[in-house]
Specification:
Elements lengths: L19 H34 L8 E3 L2 E2 L5 H10 L6 E5 L9 E6 L1 H4 L2 E3 L1 H11 L5 H4 L5 E3 L4 E3 L2 H10 L15 E2 L11 E2 L9 H13 L4 E3 L16 H14 L2 E6 L2 E5 L1 H4 L3 E4 L2 E4 L1 H15 L6 E4 L5 E4 L7 E2 L1 H14 L2 E4 L3 E3 L13 E5 L4 E6 L2 E7 L16 E4 L4 E7 L4 E11 L2 E5 L10 H5 L5 E3 L1 H10 L5 E5 L35 E2 L1
Parallel strand pairs: 1-6, 3-10, 11-18, 20-28, 26-27
Antiparallel strand pairs: 1-2, 3-4, 5-7, 8-9, 11-12, 13-14, 15-16, 17-19, 20-21, 21-22, 23-28, 24-25, 24-29, 25-26
Helix pairs in contact: 2-4, 10-11
Length: 532
């Protein structure tokens, strides 16, 4: 027999308690296994129940056309979607038939007026449910969202829509107004010019087009439509922004804005809107300036303020006042030239101060236009004075036209303006050719010049042995006078005691120098001195 070691037990010696821990473990394992199987079975059952449930219900987090349809069956959804049509309406905008103002409400289309309803809603909702895969219902519980948008088709009675629209006041023919074109109004005193009267929009609708567009808007479920924006109204052919019409008004108003302040021979004359409003008109598709009226205005002012050729009062050196014809002296407006310039200024809309264009000017402005610088020839006393800026700078005797020939030889009386001056001239007549050093004509061929053939000047020489009309001067004095005078310089000739004309003598007296006088008034109209 084998010996047992000390302390070792045999199998038979082990107690039942030694097997107990192993059995307990098996029990726990079995319990867990059963619980697991039970959980799986429960989960499977719940999953299956979800599959069955979501075959007839929409998943959580589902929306259709913005409406929450979570866990809903199709029936309530269909009812709710179709009830939405009750709140539908189409607002139709256009022009107020009374005032023509935009954005006026012409009328509203509501479901009951045209028997409006949805069609195909049930089929569409049920189709969405069929597309839903119930196997994946649990995904919806993971906050996955399902959003659907159905295009709900509408059906309505188009005849009812037609009659509804035609019943609106704005759509009745008797209330429609045709548009009126913009046009240029009459001259406005308040504005001082012309203005464009805006077009009238008009309220005449293209009713057939409007009904077609409203029908389409209802079908598209639009909530608003503007018939004006969609071109359902007839518009004016000419509008206030018409370029040609604005150009016409702008031109007319520019001309009317002209302001010319004249200094017309010392008198202020203003040409402005008060006068221009009668000259500027609009007609024939353009702005028109009455140029003839402009010319008449210039002539009128010239007649009022020109002094050329008019009688003038003159204070002689001897201190008495006489009245003399103006002859060729004074202020004379160049009517044609000033008319042309004024027309151009009006077309430019100018605002300026100016003098008119003068063809002939005088020494100073005003009716007494001789000024302080002039030649004064006293025919009775045969004495000449020359004033410069009011100062007497020289005086001399002279010989003027003879009194015993014809009236053509009598030196004319009046106020003259020097025509020009020149040196080394040749005076030509029918019977003579005579050179002079200084030639200063003031009226036709009447003039002042040196006369070196004369030995004496002044006194009564002129009565029987005067010139043919010119003023004969001592050569030295002619030279000095020549230095002072210029074109337009006033020459005043007068007979303070009357013209001592005694008629032609029985026989003409010979020239003291043995030659004829070089002055020949008989040829004044066609003969002038010629320079060599």
């Amino acid at each position: 027999m084998e010996e047992r070691q000390s302390g070792e037990m045999t199998e038979t010696e082990k107690s039942p308690e030694a097997k107990k821990p192993k059995s307990k473990k098996k029990y726990v394992l079995m319990v867990f296994l059963l619980m697991f199987v039970a959980t799986l079975a429960a989960a499977a059952y719940l999953y299956y129940r979800g599959i069955v449930y979501y075959r007839t219900h929409f998943f959580p987090n589902t929306s259709i056309n913005g409406m929450d349809c979570s866990d809903m069956e199709t029936g309530p959804i269909i009812d709710a979607l179709e009830r939405r049509i009750d709140s539908y309406g189409l607002e139709v905008l256009g022009r107020d038939y009374k005032t023509g103002e935009s954005d006026a409400v012409l009328g509203n289309i509501v479901p009951e007026d045209i028997q409006l309803r949805y069609v195909g809603t049930r089929e569409a909702v049920e189709s969405l449910l069929q597309q839903q895969n119930e196997i994946f219902w649990f995904e919806a519980h993971l906050n996955k969202k399902f959003q659907y948008f159905l295009e709900q088709e509408m059906t309505f009675e188009e005849e009812l829509l037609d009659s509804t629209v035609r019943s609106w006041d704005a759509c009745k023919r008797k209330n429609m107004q045709r548009p009126e074109d913009a046009y240029i109004g009459e001259y406005s005193e308040e504005l001082g010019g012309y203005e464009i009267i805006p077009e009238t929009k008009g309220t005449n609708l293209d009713l057939e087009k409007a009904i077609t567009l409203i029908t389409e808007a209802v079908s598209a479920q639009d909530v608003s439509i503007d018939l004006e924006e969609l071109g359902c109204y007839g518009d004016a052919a000419v509008k206030s922004d018409d370029r040609q019409m604005n150009r016409i008004v702008d031109n007319a108003n520019k001309w009317l804005g002209t302001k010319i302040v004249y200094d017309w021979n010392g008198t202020k004359v203003t040409l402005d809107n008060e006068i221009l409003k009668d000259w500027v008109t609009i007609g024939g598709g353009k702005a028109v300036l009455d140029e003839e009226a402009v010319g008449a205005f210039v002539k009128e002012q010239a007649a009022a303020y020109d002094t050329y050729g008019r009688r003038k009062n003159f204070m002689t050196t001897d201190g008495y006042e006489i009245s003399l014809p103006g002859r060729n002296y004074g202020w004379k407006t160049d009517v044609e030239g000033e008319t042309e310039e004024l027309i151009a200024l009006i077309y430019q809309g100018s605002q300026i101060e100016k003098e008119p264009i003068y063809s002939i000017s005088a020494g100073q402005k005003g009716s007494n236009d001789i000024g302080d610088s002039y030649v004064e020839a006293d025919m009775n006393n045969q004495h000449l004075y020359l004033y410069q800026d009011g100062n007497l700078v020289l005086e001399t005797d002279f010989v003027s036209g003879t009194m015993v020939s014809s009236w053509d030889c009598v030196t004319p009386e009046g106020v003259f303006g020097l025509l020009y001056k020149t040196t080394d001239a040749v005076l030509r007549g029918e019977t003579y050719t005579t050179p002079v050093k200084y030639w200063m004509p003031f009226y036709g061929n009447y003039g002042m010049h040196d006369a070196n053939w004369r030995g004496a000047f002044g006194g009564d020489i002129f009565i029987t042995n005067g010139s043919h009309g010119c003023i004969n001067l001592p050569p030295s004095m002619a030279a000095q006078i020549y230095q002072y005078v210029s074109k337009g310089f006033p020459v005043v000739c007068y007979y303070s005691q009357g013209i001592p004309y005694i008629g032609p003598p029985a026989e003409p007296e010979p020239d003291p120098e043995g030659q004829e006088n070089p002055d020949n008034p008989e040829n004044q109209a066609n003969q002038e001195a010629v320079t060599e």
